[in-house]
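#onboarding

Welcome to the new folks! Below is a worked example of what a typical request in this channel looks like: someone posts a single protein sequence, and someone else replies with the predicted structure as tokens. Don't worry about understanding the tokens yet, we'll cover that in week two.

Example request:
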Amino acid sequence: MLKHRGFPGRLPGTDFQFTIRRANVKEGATPLISRERFKDRRAPDRRADEAFIAALWEHFGEEPFERGNLDAGRLSWLFGREVVAAEDPFDPRSYEALLKIDLKRARLSYPDIFNDAQDDWDDEEDDEEWDDDED
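Example response:
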């Protein structure tokens, strides 16, 4: 099982886990499932989802990534929507399974996380336009 070095282990100040310490050799990886998110979810649960997708974005960006030691429970809240399989066939019980962020869906669900990246891009374009005007 690949351990994602530098990835946060949990949401600071809470018990919301983002990674696991060791592989389950006896029963294998917990399968990823698509959990339904209801509108009346508690605010701390929503914050944990947002922090987790932000960590995925910061750590992996748009590139496919191996499931490794990422927590199956936390991934399952995003799986099938903001996080999708990056390989076919996909094995939901494999630590080596490849996943990726569905950027279009993630931007819709968590605009605050991805607007910062878009704002940085827009600033660079504005700087270039400004430089052209000075010539």
